[in-house]
Design goal:
Layout (H helix, E strand, L loop, with lengths): L6 H4 L11 H12 L5 H7 L7 H14 L7 H17 L4 H13 L8 H16 L14 H15 L9
Helix pairs in contact: 2-3, 3-4, 5-6, 5-8, 6-7, 7-8
Length: 169
């Protein structure tokens, strides 16, 4: 059975600055819609917004156990959250916004080698926004094609890193 893409983000919640627990509620709702059904998941999906951090995390942790998933920390969390952001980029959703979020998150994690290209693309796009035609981070990137290059790089990254997508413990 498929899982919600939001799984990759919420399992990394402890590593994400300013994590909004309403996303755990959204995730639970998506998982129910995908056919998952456990007592804690149903309670989590029904919590009111804005959610209470402690109540939400309590039901979230119970739900993870019921679904045989686990919260991630350290490099596993960095990779999991990166997968979430890169999937969004590959789908063409708010590409620049998600690239920026990926850059800032990973810079706080000492630029994980696995996502180094996205750091370069972030800098290239920044230079192109400022200079409009000059950047030295990504060969051939211009203001006209940077968005498509970022999307294509995300698609290639996802294909290359499929082995990292397993969530079950």
């Amino acid at each position: 059975m498929a899982i919600s893409d939001l799984t990759y983000k919420v399992v990394a919640f402890a590593e994400i600055p300013d994590f909004n627990t309403d996303e755990c509620v959204d995730w639970a709702f998506e998982m129910v819609a995908l056919g998952y059904d456990t007592p804690s998941l149903l309670i989590l999906a029904g919590l009111n917004r804005p959610s209470s951090y402690f109540q939400t995390i309590e039901y979230f942790n119970k739900t993870l156990a019921e679904l045989k998933l686990r919260a991630k920390s350290g490099k596993e969390a960095t990779l999991s959250y990166s997968i979430y952001l890169i999937k969004k980029i590959a789908l063409g959703e708010r590409i620049k916004e998600y690239l920026t979020e990926l850059y800032h998150f990973c810079s706080s994690k000492d630029y994980e080698e696995l996502i180094y290209d996205f750091k370069l693309l972030y800098w290239a796009w920044g230079d192109l926004d400022y200079e409009n035609e000059q950047q030295s981070y990504w060969p051939g990137a211009t203001a006209d094609n940077i968005e498509s290059i970022v999307k294509e790089t995300a698609e290639q990254w996802l294909t290359k890193n499929q082995k990292h997508f397993i969530q079950a413990s």
